[in-house]
Amino acid sequence: MQLEAVIGLEVHAQLLTDSKIFCGCSTRFGAEPNHNTCPVCLGMPGVLPVLNKKVVDYALRTALATNCQIAPYSIFARKNYFYPDLPKGYQISQYEKPLAEKGWVDIEVEEGERRIGITRIHLEEDAGKLIHEEGARGAFSYVDFNRTGVPLIEIVSEPDIRSPEEASEYLRSLRDILRYLEVCDGNMEEGSFRCDANVSIRQRGEKGMGVKAEVKNMNSFRFVQRALEYEISRQKGVLEEGGKIIQETRLWEESRGVTISMRGKEEAHDYRYFPEPDLIPLKIDPSWIERIKETLPELPGERKERFIREYQLPPDDAGLLTGNKALADYYEKCVKLYNKTKIVSNWIMGEVSAKLKSKELEIEQCPVTPEMLTGMLKLVDKGTISGKIAKDVFNQIWESGKSAEEIVEEKGLVQVSDAAEIEQIVDKVLADNPAEIEQYRAGKDKLLGFFVGQVMKASEGKANPRIVNEIVRKKLGR
User: Which is nearest to 264 in space by CA: 249, 245, 244?
Assistant: First the structure.
């Protein structure tokens, strides 16, 4: 049985506005529980919501950046359901007439470029948050309404995704776009970028859809990929054994590496949508769209192509550097100071990124400024320090905040380029290793690296590698 997965993703992105979507309460993350609330977002009797214009601006930026058609006329609706963290008993969202439809995002996968369609982008308010605790008197659940009314856009993809890897790449590409637009910080751990997945299985080549399960509770790209891998395997197993897939909502349980049934999957009619009577329809004038277009930045795909063209970078380098706007900005600041673009790319993707990862920091928090990094690279070019010593200097710049020049002077790290001095070290290394000389002259060419390494070790990494290689080759006669 040749089966394939059909995956559609629903992404909720929290918008980076200072205030909530329908009231003036702060959206600041981490405030004391129930501190950022008011009668409007708590749904008290007699209050009226007022739409935050910046929310619409940010949603329009996203719609344009994802090639969507923007509706001149959209309507807010009440989505009725009853959870402890939903104080009104309904959520203000959009249903029949969303803000934008029919867009797409292009992603890069092993097979090449894939286009993932976007069904719709609509505006809605967030719900609150339940906090579960075990105490001396038993288990308790608390409700924090700070998140209630925080503005969201929901981005619903077409069921165009065929693998967990494609799903992960789509999410990364979408998050990169939102970050470039500066409309969402994309923080999955804090819940400002959340994803639900609809997964079904069908015979390969079929056009219809299988019965789908919705998977929730995935707060990292790794969790999304692992949850989808498990759910696809589970559904294929059920079908291959002659069973039937049940339409339901399932939760990803990371500790066990499984999805578990949560409830039967709701349909649209279960929410009893009807137009929100307290909000007038949202009309988008063409001039509003044109104003937003003028503010759009260079997006990740465009910047990648420019890096390939302008800096002569391989596509993989350009893709990694431009996936994060702040990282791309850091790179461009470096190449303005030091125009060897591939060397800068190697250092940023190598030493800089490794150090950031080990310290769990973002590039914005990097203590090695572009001026510091390029200053060190210029010392390598001048022959003041070797590439090997440069790695030690980089670590000391990171820890001390001093310039490369200061560190090299203080530590006496200046590279030795005096041929006579290096020749003395080479002579001693060769004298200490007669057996290896014999093997090298007998054809074991790889031993050249051994001799060079011994010389570099004896010079504490200070000898000029180019001169070392020249002298060693000359002395060995090959």
Answer: 249
Compute φ and ψ for 198, nearest 5 degrees: -105, 120
pLDDT digits (tens, 9 = 90+) for 416-466: 666 777 778 888 888 888 888 777 777 777 877 888 788 778 777 777 777
Which residue carries 């070392």 as its tokens? 468
pLDDT of residue 267: 67
Task: Mark whether 307 and 396 lie in a shared domain.
Answer: yes
Distance CA(189)–CA(186), nearest Å, equals 9
What φ, ψ does residue 57 adopt, rounded to 5°?
Answer: -55, -50
CA pseudo-torsion sign 223, 120, 321, 333: negative
pLDDT tens figures, 106-130: 998 888 889 999 999 999 999 999 8
Domain end point (choices 356, 383, 411): 411
Residue type, 56: V
Mean pLDDT of 50-64: 98
Instruction: Give the span between the Cα atoms of 195 and 167, in whole angstroms.
Output: 10
d(CA 156, CA 300): 20
Reference 70, options 105, 99, 103, 104; nearest CA is 99
**Encoding tokens for residue 190?**
């804090």
Q: State pTM to two decimals.
A: 0.83
Domain span holding position 370: 297-411
Per the structure, how many domains does the chain have?
A: 3
Phi-psi region of 267 (alpha: psi -120 to 50; beta: other; left: phi over 0): beta
For residues 233 and 149, state if they share a domain.
yes
Q: Are 105 and 66 in contact (CB under 8 A)?
A: yes
Question: Dihedral of CA 238/239/242/248: which sign?
Answer: positive
**Residues 68, 102: contact at Cβ < 8 Å?**
yes
SS3 at position 292: helix
DSSP class of 44: -
Q: Are 439 and 309 part of one and the same domain?
A: no
Cα dist. 405→155, 379, 396, 461, 464 in Å?
50, 8, 11, 17, 18
% helix, strand, coil for the chain, step of 5: 40, 25, 35
Indicate left, alpha or beta for 175 from its phi (over 0: left) and psi (-120 to 50: alpha). alpha
Tell whether 381 and 435 lie within a shared domain: no
What order of strands is seen across the sheet that includes strand 90-94?
90-94, 76-80, 274-275
Helix (H, G, I), strand (E, B) or coil at 78: strand
Q: For 191-225, what is each residue's pLDDT tens digit?
A: 899 999 999 999 887 888 888 999 987 888 889 99
At a CB cut-off of 8 Å and minimum separation 6, what does 219 contact?
188, 189, 191, 194
- Exposed, middle or buried: residue 233 (CB in 10 Å: 0-12, 13-18, 19+)? exposed
